[in-house]
């Protein structure tokens, strides 16, 4: 990790960009290898139906992963997103049941998400508490709060609005799931922001070296604060799609989701040390893990083996990446 | 706190000298909690309840002792919960087939120590960030335990010595509490009074300096990982004795409780700072809260909410106190 952060200081931007390019190339090769392996071993793996299904499943970690990557790049972590999925489903479902309006429900959910982001961001950026502690705390508080409120029972979606159900099984042109469309649009927008907008550069600067960023006149606290809000709002979007998919507000929704997203993000080359990584890398990381678990299921392996193999691949991939980075730095 | 922080702190109150910096806040929180709960529910101070609290603390404290060492070296282990469940199943299976407590314990310690060694090697040799490495191990163990057994491994050995491990007493004190106290004291002495302990702090505070001064920092971190693993082995056997079965679903979220207790005790996630005494206080605070919620008859789901608030609040109070000290 220390090697990674010094690399970002020493290297020129162009060099850095080349490093990213190579990183993503390696990930892309990985993804193609995964696809190639399963297309030979699993029947119908490369069918449009299966590919778009995986894309739909990948949309949740993709959307939440954008926020996770943005927070990582700013040099912080957010592990409260799993509990957030369960939390924001409550206002969403309750308001929809009462008002029969998707818009009001989504608005209520986003408002809740915004408040959670503000709390996480304020406690980290302005109160100065370590973000792992803050989000560990809010993770407990939210999960416990959901248990308290629901009495550990699911709240079913009684409104059954067509527009809400379309979020789970609707497909654009009858091909691409709407959830995947949302994920792709958000990904493109945020990738543009990170690479081409001043605010994106500020996030990289703050995560790369906080002191330098401060001296350059950036408001470090504000940047981090906003990153947490971005993360919470994106997780909210993921939570809305999840609620549509299960058709209810589940108190157990999103258990261990944060680990899934963190693993995919790091696999995608986004450094926990801050300042390094890209959203396209994160997206490739998510896709590799999703296609892997889909393919393993296609091979008829039980879920347990999927967990074991995914765990091994995460360790191997990050280890490989570290080794490559060390070699690139000459030692 | 550690010698390192003591040296850097400009002024210290007498209380601050007696206890470490954050321990003072935590001690006050603990005292306030005990007073408040005992006013609302006098049975809080009954012998039975205090023994119940201590027994609850034992499991967490055993693993937290190792985890404190590990976090002081600036690493973390998220796989302890999954490992706890796996160890319980393996230990019970070996007990059932050998009818020997020694062999069962040995198998449990070998497995959990092996998990620690694996984590340590991945982190120190392959240079994988420990947060990610141990998420990976966690997944492998969670999957692995179901491949090992689909259902709980029941106790078929009926060994009295094994049942005593969780439910037995020496005098008035439960056996798990004695084991926890023993492990705590060993870890405390190691961290506080030995060169090895000082090296562990040094590795966490400045790994490069430690390496340049000729110490093998990897070895030290590896040691902390293995110790954490071994602690999980002991805790896993106690847990399976208490439940009278090896449960593959046990230990869900256990890693977060342990880490919360360690952090609450003032150990810095950045490494180099922290103390086992703080961890003891952290465990006590969390378990007294749990107990209070039960004996006050509150909704048990609050057992998740309140610790969350306490972790954030205690850390925040500590920051404020530090700022006041600097001024």
Automatic annotation (TrEMBL), chain A:
Keyword hit for Secreted: no
Domain of life: Bacteria
Membrane topology according to the record: Multi-pass membrane protein
InterPro entries named in the record: ABC_transp_permease
Keyword tags: Cell inner membrane, Cell membrane, Membrane, Sugar transport, Transmembrane, Transmembrane helix, Transport
Main localisation: membrane
TM spans (from-to): 25-42, 54-73, 79-95, 102-123, 129-151, 172-194, 223-247, 259-292, 304-320
PANTHER family: ABC TRANSPORTER PERMEASE PROTEIN YPHD-RELATED-RELATED, XYLOSE TRANSPORT SYSTEM PERMEASE PROTEIN XYLH
Function: Part of the binding-protein-dependent transport system for D-xylose. Probably responsible for the translocation of the substrate across the membrane.
The protein's name in its UniProt record: Xylose transport system permease protein XylH
Organism from which the protein derives: Mesorhizobium metallidurans STM 2683
Lineage, broadest ranks: Bacteria, Pseudomonadati, Pseudomonadota, Alphaproteobacteria, Hyphomicrobiales
Gene name as annotated: yphD
From TrEMBL, chain B:
Protein name: D-ribose transporter subunit membrane component of ABC superfamily
Signal sequence bounds: none
Spans traversing the lipid bilayer: 21-44, 50-71, 78-95, 101-123, 130-149, 169-191, 222-243, 249-270, 277-298, 304-320
Main subcellular location: membrane
Cellular location(s): Cell membrane
Membrane-topology annotation of the record: Multi-pass membrane protein
GO molecular function: transmembrane transporter activity
Keyword field contains S-adenosyl-L-methionine: no
GO CC terms, sorted: plasma membrane
Highest taxon of the lineage: Bacteria
UniProt keyword annotations, A-Z: Cell inner membrane, Cell membrane, Membrane, Transmembrane, Transmembrane helix, Transport
Biological source species: Mesorhizobium metallidurans STM 2683
């Amino acid at each position: 990790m220390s090697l990674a952060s010094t690399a970002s200081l020493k290297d020129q931007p162009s060099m850095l960009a080349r490093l990213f390019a190579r990183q993503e190339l390696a990930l892309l090769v990985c993804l193609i290898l995964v696809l190639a392996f399963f297309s030979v071993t699993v029947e119908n793996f490369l069918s449009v139906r299966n590919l778009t299904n995986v894309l739909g499943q990948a949309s949740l970690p993709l959307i939440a992963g954008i926020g996770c990557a943005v927070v990582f790049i700013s040099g912080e972590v957010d592990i409260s997103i799993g509990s957030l999925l369960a939390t924001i489903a409550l206002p969403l479902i309750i308001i929809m049941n009462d008002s029969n309006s998707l818009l009001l429900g989504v608005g209520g959910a986003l408002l809740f998400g915004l408040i959670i982001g503000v709390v996480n961001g304020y406690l980290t950026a302005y109160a100065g508490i370590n973000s792992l502690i803050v989000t560990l705390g809010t993770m407990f508080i939210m999960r416990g709060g959901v248990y308290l409120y629901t009495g550990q029972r699911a709240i079913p979606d009684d409104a059954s609005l067509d527009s809400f159900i379309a979020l789970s099984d609707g497909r654009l042109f009858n091909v691409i799931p709407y959830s995947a469309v949302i994920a792709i649009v958000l990904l493109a927008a945020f990738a543009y922001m990170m690479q081409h907008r001043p605010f994106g550069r500020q996030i990289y600067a703050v995560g790369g070296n906080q002191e330098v960023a401060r001296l350059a006149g950036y408001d470090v606290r504000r940047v981090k604060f906003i990153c947490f809000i971005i993360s919470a709002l994106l997780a909210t979007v993921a939570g809305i799609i999840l609620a549509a998919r299960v058709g209810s507000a589940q108190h157990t929704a999103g258990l261990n989701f944060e680990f899934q997203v963190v693993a995919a993000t790091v696999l995608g080359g986004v450094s926990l040390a801050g300042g390094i990584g890209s959203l396209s890398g994160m997206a490739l990381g998510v896709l590799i893990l999703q296609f892997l678990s889909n393919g393993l299921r296609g091979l008829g392996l039980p879920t347990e083996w999927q967990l074991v193999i995914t765990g091994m691949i995460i360790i191997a991939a990050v280890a490989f990446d570290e080794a490559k980075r060390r070699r690139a730095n000459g030692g | 706190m550690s010698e390192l922080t003591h040296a850097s702190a400009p002024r210290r109150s007498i209380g601050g000298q007696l206890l470490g910096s954050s321990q003072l806040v935590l001690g006050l929180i603990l005292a306030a909690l005990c007073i408040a709960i005992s006013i609302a529910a006098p049975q809080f101070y009954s012998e039975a309840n205090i023994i119940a609290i201590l027994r609850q603390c034992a499991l967490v404290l055993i693993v937290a002792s190792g985890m404190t060492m590990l976090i002081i070296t600036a690493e973390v282990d998220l796989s302890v919960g999954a490992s706890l469940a796996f160890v319980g199943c393996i230990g019970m299976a070996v007990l059932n087939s050998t009818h020997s407590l020694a062999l069962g314990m040995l198998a449990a310690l070998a497995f959990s120590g092996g998990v620690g060694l694996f984590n340590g090697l991945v982190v120190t040799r392959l240079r994988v960030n420990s947060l990610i490495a141990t998420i990976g191990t966690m997944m492998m163990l969670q999957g692995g335990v179901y491949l090992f057994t689909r259902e709980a491994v029941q106790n078929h050995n009926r060994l009295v010595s094994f049942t005593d491990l969780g439910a037995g007493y020496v005098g008035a004190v439960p056996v798990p509490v004695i084991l926890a106290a023993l492990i705590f004291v060993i870890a405390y002495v190691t961290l506080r009074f030995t060169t090895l302990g000082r090296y562990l702090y040094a590795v966490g505070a400045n790994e490069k300096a430690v390496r340049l001064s000729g110490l093998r920092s990897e070895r030290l971190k590896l040691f902390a990982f293995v110790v954490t693993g071994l602690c999980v082995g002991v805790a896993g056997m106690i847990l399976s004795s208490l439940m009278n079965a090896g449960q593959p679903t046990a230990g869900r979220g256990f890693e977060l409780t342990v880490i919360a207790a360690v952090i609450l005790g003032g150990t810095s996630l950045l490494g180099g700072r922290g103390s086992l005494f703080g961890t003891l206080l952290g465990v006590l605070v969390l378990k007294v809260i749990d107990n209070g919620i039960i004996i006050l008859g509150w909704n048990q789901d609050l057992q998740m909410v309140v610790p969350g608030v306490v972790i954030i609040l205690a850390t925040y109070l500590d920051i404020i106190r530090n700022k006041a000290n600097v001024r």
